[in-house]
Amino acid sequence: MLELRNLSFSVTEENRDKEILRGISLTIPDDKLVVLTGPNGGGKSTLAKLIAGIEQPISGQIFFNGQDITGLSITERARLGISYAFQQPVRFKGIQVLDLIRFATGKNTLSVADACDYLAAVGLCAKDYINREVNNSLSGGELKRIEIATVLARGAALSIFDEPEAGIDLWSFQNLIQTFDSMRRSIPNSSFLIISHQERILNIADEIMVLADGRLEQSGDKEQIMSELIGTTSAVPGCRKVEGGDSSVC
Amino acid sequence: MLTMDEIKKRLLLEVAGLHDIPEGAYNIRADGKSAGRQSSAHITITPKENGSGLDIDIQPGTKNESVHIPVVMTQSGLKEVVYNDFHIGDDCDILIVAGCGIDNCGNQDSQHDGIHRFYVGKNSRVKYVEKHYGSGTGSGKRILNPVTEVYQQENSFVEMEMVQIKGVDDTNRTTNAELAAGAKLIVRERLMTHGVQNAYSKYVVNLNGAGSSADVVSRSVARDKSYQTFDAKVVGNAPCSGHTECDSIIMDSGRILAIPSLEANDLDAALVHEAAIGKIAGEQIIKLLTLGMTEAEAEEKIINGFLK
Ligand SMILES: Nc1ncnc2c1ncn2[C@@H]1O[C@H](COP(=O)(O)OP(=O)(O)OP(=O)(O)O)[C@@H](O)[C@H]1O
Ligand SMILES: [Mg+2]
Predict the structure, then answer these.
(1) Residue B107 region, left (φ>0) first, then alpha (ψ -120 to 50), else beta?
(2) Across the interface, which of B281, B292, B305 has its CB nearest the CB of A75?
(3) Tens of pLDDT along B115-130?
(4) What is the DSSP letter of A56?
(5) What is the mean pLDDT of chain A?
(6) CA separation for the pair B220, B248 (Å, rounded)
(7) How many contiguous H segments (helices) and E segments (strands) does chain A have?
(8) pLDDT at residue A237 in the model
(9) Dist. CA A146–CA A40, nearest whole Å
(10) What is the CA(A8)–ligand 2 centre distance, in A?
(11) Minimum-distance CB partner of A78 among B291, B304, B308
């Protein structure tokens, strides 16, 4: 179980503090799949980075299975069972897909066949990819799937996926959803935080949370939030049109 | 069976991957003397008259054969210059494994300067692998100054893999190549320097014939207080294509100077160079930390992959 208590984060830009997350409190219980949604720039990825330890909050606390992990390093949190699939996965010259999956499982001796299973789960034909380098030669969608496969391979208690659907083709979408489903069933007491803008992913949530302008605007059961979300035309105020011109200024 | 001590055997394994005498033609040079030599039906190895090196003659049409000519040195203070000439006939397909390992436990410098010349016949394919390695705790330096000259005739193909990962204090490497029409040269250099090591690597590739091409790629890591210079020049004297790339990681107080240069003397010469130097990308380390590694483990994995 993950619990955030009054978590705030800001950055300094041109000598001024810019607030990015303002007093976020939320709980992700065991065995639950939570989808976090909201407008671009709302603070979703930043929240994921705070949970993984990549960024440090200016105030507030993070508890994982009852333990205060606010002061722990990325490595320590990873070893406690927090796993994070980046919105923009990282490329590595010379490191092969097989290496990366082995790093993720922590087993240098993981067999090629076992590593291939994780690739198959994200819809990649394993034999074509297992020896590929995780470098610029991979397409965006391929890289994204490999990123998801590494998080599958970790089998962590809490898995965070940041827009897993981005760049994934329509045909594979259904498989991706099935993958989350089988992952839930294979890791006991596991919880999931999936950041997404896709209705089909919102649909598999137990709970939905809406983050806008650094605030947790809504959270609750899927049915309740979905009906409220569908009622609104846009989650953010649109741009004000400049009179007489066709360019828009925010 | 070779009569060599354990240190020499270990060096031989590092530089040539050899546990024992190799198959095919070979010459193993240990502390300035031949520790074993064998010619094969198509490959003749003859020592030069003044003892300063070898002539290696490979008959035209020799296919799928190999030549191993590793050098190992364990005697502190030994300095040698060795000339090895490879005369490769037309239509061959061969593997040449060279390399030098120095173990210096003394306080005098040990130095091996190997001058390798390759005369490659028409349509021949050559793969050349050269590894350099140093070990030993003495204060004497381990110095390697290889000179490689490659003369490629029409439609020949040469692939060179040059690796120096550990233990060489000072190296000054020069590689010159002359390519006739349709010839192709691929160079893959991997280099890592530590401590206060110094490495200088210079290439001059002349693309003289129509349709010739060269691809020279160096990947290197400079750690501690080491210093590297990569100086690669590709000259296009005919309709040809050339590419050089230097991709480097600096760590600690390591320093690198990259001087890629191109000279086009023909309107249809297409030449490209790329050079990038920087520390390990922070996001790469972060990604591996999120997989549960420590920072030191993450760095090691990234460097190992980069130099693989
Ligand atoms: N290091 C930083 N410096 C300056 N601004 C930052 C920094 N990190 C995040 N921001 C800003 O914080 C806000 C939230 O960014 P974040 O990436 O968390 O949004 P998001 O909700 O994930 O958006 P998207 O849906 O587009 O992925 C944005 O306005 C972003 O520009
Ligand atoms: Mg985001």
Answers:
(1) alpha
(2) B292
(3) 999 999 999 999 999 9
(4) -
(5) 88
(6) 5
(7) 9, 12
(8) 46
(9) 24
(10) 17
(11) B291
How far apart are the C-alpha atoms of B237 and B211, rounded to whole Å?
11
Per-residue pLDDT tens over the stretch B224-249? 999 999 999 999 999 999 999 999 99
For B65, how many CA atoms within 13 A lie in the half-sphere containing its CB? 21
The H or E element spanning position B42 is: none
**Rounded to an integer, what distance in angstroms lies between the CA atom of residue A125 and that of residue A170?**
17
CA of A44 to the centre of ligand 1 (A): 8
| Ordered alpha helix ranges (H), A106-169 | 112-121, 126-129, 140-154
More confident residue, A18 or A168: A18
Contacts of A30 (CB under 8 A, 6+ apart): A1, A157, A189, A190, A191
B275: nearest Cα among B232, B227, B308, B241: B232
Residue type, position B265, single letter: N
Ligand 1 atom nearest to CA at A48? 18
Question: Which of A10, A17, A44 has most ligand 1 atoms within 8 Å of its beta carbon, as the pocket-test mutant?
Answer: A44
In a domain, A52, yes or no: yes
Domain range list for chain B: 6-281
Mutate to test the pocket of ligand 1, among A46, A213, A215 (most ligand atoms within 8 A of CB): A46
Provide the domain limits for residue A41: 2-243
- A250 inside domain: no
CATH number, residue A87: 3.40.50.300
Cβ(A160)–Cβ(A84) under 8 Å?
yes
ipTM of predicted assembly, 2 dp: 0.90
Domains identified in chain A, total number: 1
Q: Which residues of chain B have pLDDT under 70?
A: 1-2
